[in-house]
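[audit] Reproducing an earlier prediction to check determinism. Same input, same settings, fresh worker. If the tokens differ from the archived copy the diff job will pick it up downstream; this log only records the rerun itself.
[audit] input (132 residues):
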Amino acid sequence: MTDDEKERIERMERNMEFIVEHQAQFAAEIQEMRAGMQEMRVGMQELRAGLQEVRQVLSSQNQAIVTVVGLVGRLAEIQEEFQKSAESRFAGLETRTADLEIKMKELAEAGKGTENRLNAFITFVEKYISSR
């Protein structure tokens, strides 16, 4: 074998070693990538489960908000009905108070007439008694 052939064989062997080493490194990197991909899959599953829980909580909160809004609306309706009822009652009370004031004035006038008649009767009785 000539020196050229030996050198060529050595170069081919070095190239083959280089290729084998790189192939081994490549295989190791692929294995690491597969492990990383598996971790990512597990992480994605955990994220999906967490997202589902968040959706359930949000759904419950949305239902609670709808219920509260409905209650607030009903409360506003009740407040409005109560206010209308109270205004109606106060209007009726004002009318009755005005009527009562009129009747009290009439009663006071009637009382004055009664007092005048009573005084006249007392005067008559006193004169009658004193003339005897």
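[audit] rerun output stored. Observation attached for the diff report: The helical segments are 3-130.
[audit] end
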